[in-house]
């Protein structure tokens, strides 16, 4: 009989499986091992790899089962175990060569049911796990009734050896369908065994995959994981705390519960990406409150310095469900006591009463006679809005400690990224500083916001910090007044600095003692060339670095046909891209990330982009905040946002005048205009009512709205073009380095993938397409196209997954109908009087996590039918085919309204005239 049976569950690990099995073959007691390869229905080359090893070695067996997950595969393997001991190896990990021998010997010598070895991660550095403290002092047997409570924090099945007899009656040892299967299974085994051997050497190599697809990777993104973990702690609490007589065991399990569930509570209440509504929070409270009610608050409060987290622990201990569900103080008045900001509402715990505030300064607007600063009062532990009764003032303290005060206007700042729902409100702040009051002499003023308690008139400074992109306003005041943002993000206004002081300041920007600072060489080059370049009135036009197909491209083509321009227009593109070659046909092009790019950017008069110029036009070596921190005092350019789609969702935080501050922004209809004025604080002088430059080409392709007659001689086209989803793929400008890999696991588990994968493989739809000679072209959003390879290839030539290099406008012009979810390209198709179908299977989730709703209500079907299921989608496709891809009179009327500014003779001329006047 073999000494150890090793269960290896396998599922789609062809890249790593051989390495895992070779680590078993390399064991010093390989001949005494019985290796059980359990194939959980792999769809890649894993099956062939496993079978080959089973054929080659008599002590390696291969078993195939239907896919059921990791727990199911492990449980399946247990039925084949015949050895005295059992181990588990995940199929992307490895054992060290003496792991099995040393674990076995230690278990035999000490008659132990369980022995634990050390674990390290690769290729990333091993985290400092709590249980690591037990290693480094030699082999030892730990009695859990006496100590070693933090060993429970290491519940992995894989770095342990188990006496098989303790697993025999556990036919469903690992729970199927739940996350944290190891903790469910192994912690009870460890507690029941009591004596745990600790082998003081590394025996297990856990692979932390570069693309984030390891089994143990991030657990906080799926709602189900929260409920699975609650079931875990409930399953431990009942037998090992409520029914436990041994104090040390009770202490160990309670500590495991409150230490490990702390991260979940943090994410529920502090992570904006994790959304639990009040009903869900109340449900969680009811399940966990009986567990927490007997835990000392003194233990819990030390887990966090955050008032909200302290409050939820207080609510759990005191059985206050309402406080748990809404732990943030709703504060409309603040009291100052002993220099501490305090809420009038009192709890027994002083820390819960304290209010933490800071002021974020986001925007500077320099006018002829004043400077206006705009920002927001924020709190990490209370809800503060514009109805705060306390007066606020801005204090300027000069170099002699003399202060001036200016009243702050509070308002509901609708562009705040912290407003999640339409009914939410916040505390925006505005303050005007007359230039005449600060410009009398050479001086330096520190900026601080103060809150005043009305009853006592006591003032309290609150932290006043520049927003990450506020650096870009450092060069935007005037010759007498300059702005400085210090490394700690505090803000200074400097007036009438002497030439000597300016030179010293610039020297310190360039040099760190005798060494050049980061960006120092480029600053020197800018100073050497700016005198000449600024005379050129440079306008840089761009899109994404590798594209020349959107409004920027259309505008650049137009500009280069127009004589008598005051400014010089250059296109910016990746020098190795096709976009660069294409743009060269129409005008002057600058390679992105070249020295010329940097110098022309810093001396530019205007930046023009269909996308975010701060992201796509900065040198790639710098992040947005870093670029503006290093060079913000040198830039004076205006920015014109051409947009790449009509703004119909409430996304104003990304484009607002009070946060981003474009000098010009293109608009297409009156509802969009109203949204940008009301919620984004733009005025008539900043809005360009032109419609898009790319619409000029679409005008040549406007349909007459007559029904199409289908025949086999002419293939018709439906374009399927859904937008992107936050969290499924990082934005392209955030993808760092050549070795960057997308994580497909989250994508493959998403509703997005399943809906569109099922749709493009739907047999009923394919039959309808084949009958009428129609091709459906699948072309997702730019940010999702690197995931195209994961869609199943349809078994019909009437479904085409379009390569990501295709030109978007060509596809829109060629199509006879568009299917999208929320992508604003539907306006382009409607402009040409073609029908649109909206597949909005996740509309509630989309408007909860991705965007806020704007002025369009899809449920009214104003611009096309909105559907939510595959069946409805297929039926509506068939309905549109029957109608010959025509558009209803109601939709035509709405098209005329929502594209009002687009139907003018020359869209680009209006934009060019605006830029020339800047």
Automatic annotation (TrEMBL):
Pfam families, A to Z: Glycos_transf_2, Glyphos_transf
Superkingdom of source: Bacteria
Gene3D superfamilies, per the entry: 3.40.50.12580, Spore Coat Polysaccharide Biosynthesis Protein SpsA, Chain A (3.90.550.10)
One Gene Ontology cellular component: membrane
Gene Ontology terms, MF aspect: CDP-glycerol glycerophosphotransferase activity; hexosyltransferase activity
Domain Glycosyltransferase 2-like: 5-133
Family stated for the protein in its record: Belongs to the glycosyltransferase 2 family.
Annotated PANTHER family: GLYCOSYLTRANSFERASE (PTHR22916), UDP-GLCNAC:BETAGAL BETA-1,3-N-ACETYLGLUCOSAMINYLTRANSFERASE-LIKE PROTEIN 1 (PTHR22916:SF3)
Protein name as catalogued: Galactosamine-containing minor teichoic acid biosynthesis protein
């Amino acid at each position: 009989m073999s000494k150890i049976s090793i269960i290896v569950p396998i599922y789609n690990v062809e890249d790593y499986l051989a390495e895992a099995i070779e680590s078993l073959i390399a064991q010093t007691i390989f001949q005494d091992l019985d290796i059980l390869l359990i194939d959980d229905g792999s769809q890649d080359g894993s099956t062939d790899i496993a079978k080959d090893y089973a054929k080659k070695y008599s002590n390696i067996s291969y078993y195939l089962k239907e896919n059921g997950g990791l727990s199911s595969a492990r449980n399946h393997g247990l039925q084949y175990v015949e050895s005295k001991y059992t181990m588990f190896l995940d199929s992307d990990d490895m054992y060290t060569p003496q792991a099995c021998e040393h674990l076995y010997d230690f278990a035999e010598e000490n008659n132990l049911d369980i022995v634990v070895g050390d674990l390290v991660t690769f290729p990333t550095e091993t985290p400092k796990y709590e249980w690591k403290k037990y290693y480094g002092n030699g082999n030892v047997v730990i009695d859990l009734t006496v100590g070693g409570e933090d060993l429970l924090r290491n519940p992995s099945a894989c770095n342990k050896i188990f006496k098989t007899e303790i697993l025999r009656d556990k036919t469903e040892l690992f729970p199927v369908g739940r996350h944290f299967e190891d903790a469910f299974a192994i912690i009870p085994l460890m507690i029941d065994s009591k004596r745990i051997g600790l082998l003081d050497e590394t025996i297990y190599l856990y692979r932390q995959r570069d693309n984030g697809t390891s089994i143990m990777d991030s657990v906080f993104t799926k709602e189900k994981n929260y409920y699975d973990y609650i079931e875990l702690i409930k399953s431990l609490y009942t037998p090992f705390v409520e029914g436990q007589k041994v104090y040390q065991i009770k202490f160990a399990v309670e500590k495991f519960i409150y230490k490990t569930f702390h991260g979940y509570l943090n994410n529920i209440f502090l992570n904006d990406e994790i959304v639990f509504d009040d009903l869900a929070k109340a449900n969680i409270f009811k399940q966990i409150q009986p567990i927490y009610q007997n835990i000392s608050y003194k233990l819990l409060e030390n887990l966090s310095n955050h008032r909200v987290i302290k409050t939820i622990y207080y609510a759990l201990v005191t059985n206050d469900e309402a406080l748990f569900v809404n732990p943030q103080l709703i504060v409309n008045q603040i009291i100052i006591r002993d220099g501490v900001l305090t809420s009038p509402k009192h709890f027994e715990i002083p820390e819960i009463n304290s209010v933490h505030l800071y002021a974020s300064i986001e925007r500077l607007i320099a006018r002829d006679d004043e400077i206006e600063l705009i920002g927001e009062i924020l709190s990490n532990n209370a809800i503060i809005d514009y109805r705060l009764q306390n007066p606020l003032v801005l204090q300027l303290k000069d170099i002699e400690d003399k202060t001036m005060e200016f009243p702050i206007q509070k308002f509901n700042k609708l562009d705040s990224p912290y407003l999640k729902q339409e009914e939410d409100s916040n505390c925006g702040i505005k303050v005007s500083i007359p230039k005449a009051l600060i410009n009398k002499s050479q001086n330096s003023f520190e900026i601080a916001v103060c809150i005043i308690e009305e009853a006592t008139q006591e003032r309290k400074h609150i932290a006043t910090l520049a927003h990450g992109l506020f650096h870009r306003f450092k060069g935007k005041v005037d010759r007498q007044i300059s702005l400085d943002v210090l490394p700690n993000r505090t803000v200074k206004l400097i007036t009438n600095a002497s030439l000597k002081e300016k030179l010293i300041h610039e020297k310190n920007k360039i040099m760190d003692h005798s060494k050049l600072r980061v960006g120092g060489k480029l600053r020197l080059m800018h100073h050497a060339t700016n005198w000449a370049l600024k005379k050129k009135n440079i306008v840089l036009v761009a899109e994404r670095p590798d594209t020349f197909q959107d409004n920027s491209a259309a505008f650049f083509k137009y500009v280069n046909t127009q004589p008598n321009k005051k400014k010089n227009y250059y296109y910016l593109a990746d020098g190795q891209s096709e976009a660069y070659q294409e743009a060269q046909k129409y005008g002057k092009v600058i390679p992105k990330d070249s020295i010329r790019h940097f110098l022309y950017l810093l001396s530019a008069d205007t930046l023009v982009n269909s996308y975010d110029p701060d992201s796509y036009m900065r040198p790639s070596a710098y992040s947005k905040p870093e670029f503006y921190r290093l060079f913000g005092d040198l830039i004076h350019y205006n920015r014109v946002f051409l947009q790449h789609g009509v703004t119909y969702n409430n996304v104003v935080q990304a484009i607002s005048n009070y946060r981003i501050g474009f000098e010009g922004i293109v608009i297409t209809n009156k509802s969009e205009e109203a949204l940008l004025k009301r919620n984004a604080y733009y005025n008539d002088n900043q809005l360009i009512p032109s419609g898009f430059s790319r619409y000029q080409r679409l005008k040549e392709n406007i349909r007459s709205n007559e029904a199409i007659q289908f025949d086999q001689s002419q293939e018709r086209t439906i374009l399927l073009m859904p937008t992107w989803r936050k969290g499924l793929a990082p934005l392209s400008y955030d993808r760092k380095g050549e070795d960057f890999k997308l994580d497909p696991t989250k994508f493959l588990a998403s509703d997005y993938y399943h809906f569109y994968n099922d749709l493009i493989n739907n047999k009923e739809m394919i039959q309808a397409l084949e009958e009428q000679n129609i091709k459906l072209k699948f072309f997702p959003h730019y940010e999702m196209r690197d995931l195209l390879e994961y869609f199943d290839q349809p078994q019909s030539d009437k479904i085409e997954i379009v390569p990501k290099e295709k030109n978007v406008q060509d596809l829109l012009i060629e199509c006879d109908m568009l299917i999208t979810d929320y992508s604003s390209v539907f306006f382009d198709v409607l402009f040409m009087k073609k029908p649109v179908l909206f597949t909005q299977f996740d509309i509630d989730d989309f408007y909860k996590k991705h965007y806020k709703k704007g002025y369009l209500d899809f449920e009214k079907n104003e611009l096309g039918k909105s559907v939510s299921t595959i069946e409805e989608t297929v039926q509506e496709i068939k309905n549109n085919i029957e109608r010959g891809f025509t558009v209803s009179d109601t939709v035509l009327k709405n098209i005329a309204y929502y594209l009002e500014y687009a139907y003018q003779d020359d869209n680009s001329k209006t934009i060019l005239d605006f830029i020339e006047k800047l």
